[in-house]
Design goal:
This protein is mostly helical. The protein has helices at residues 3-17, 28-41, 49-54, 59-74, 84-146.
């Protein structure tokens, strides 16, 4: 087992030891304290260079980090200069704002997708309508051409 596999399991165990569910968000204060304790008490395999190379954040984690950095720069906040309680409050605010930002972004993307899907459906409906009109016209022509035929 590698560090990248073992350490997250240990962090989850530390959460459980304190009565927390590892997959639930309890705020920045709890997250920071649990992570610090996990670092201080971890006895598993040490991190290797390969562990650091393989520890690439997901696209969603990159998006969150970008958002958090933008907000900190916009508000001119140096997290390292803040006392613990203020730092946790700032991070909890940014996390809450990010959730709203992400939901708004997803809603906007869904509206754009819906609009483009509506346009595609409208095009398809128009094409089907034109085909139906051509077929009706051909049927009418065929009916006119055969109206004088007599079947014996």
């Amino acid at each position: 087992m590698t560090y990248n596999e073992a350490f997250p399991l240990w962090v989850a165990e530390v959460y459980r030891n304190h009565g927390y569910e590892p997959d639930t968000w309890y705020g920045s204060e709890v997250a920071e304290k649990m992570h610090k304790e996990a670092l201080a008490t971890y006895k598993g395999p040490p991190a290797t260079m390969l562990d650091y190379v393989e520890a690439i954040p997901s696209e969603e984690e990159f998006e969150y980090l970008d958002y958090a950095i933008q907000q900190l720069r916009k508000d001119n906040i140096n997290l390292n200069a803040l006392p613990d309680k203020e730092r946790w409050a700032v991070m909890d605010r940014i996390i809450a704002e990010y959730a709203e930002h992400k939901n708004a972004h997803v809603s906007r993307a869904k509206r754009v997708q819906k609009t483009s899907m509506q346009a595609a459906l409208e095009e398809e409906r128009e094409a089907l309508s034109q085909t139906a009109q051509r077929n009706a016209s051909r049927y009418s022509e065929a009916e006119n051409a055969t109206k004088d035929f007599v079947v014996k």
